[in-house]
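Researcher: Go.
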Amino acid sequence: MEYTVVLEKGEYSYGAFVPDLPGCIAAGESKEETLNLIKEAIEFHIEGLKEEREIIPEPHCEFARVEVNAA
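Model: Structure:
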């Protein structure tokens, strides 16, 4: 299963969240570390959903970049 992950670069670190899994977040010092941490967070989140016998959301979010003229 693949989920869309949104990465946000801060001044000193990165943050990540998963739109399909509300509350599933991670933060790290580098992009690579943050991606590893969000992968672990997704797996942990899904484990919790299974334990609670809740529905595991199917990935449905997509992303696109839109270029605009900001001049």
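Model: Strands lie at 6-9, 14-17, 25-28.
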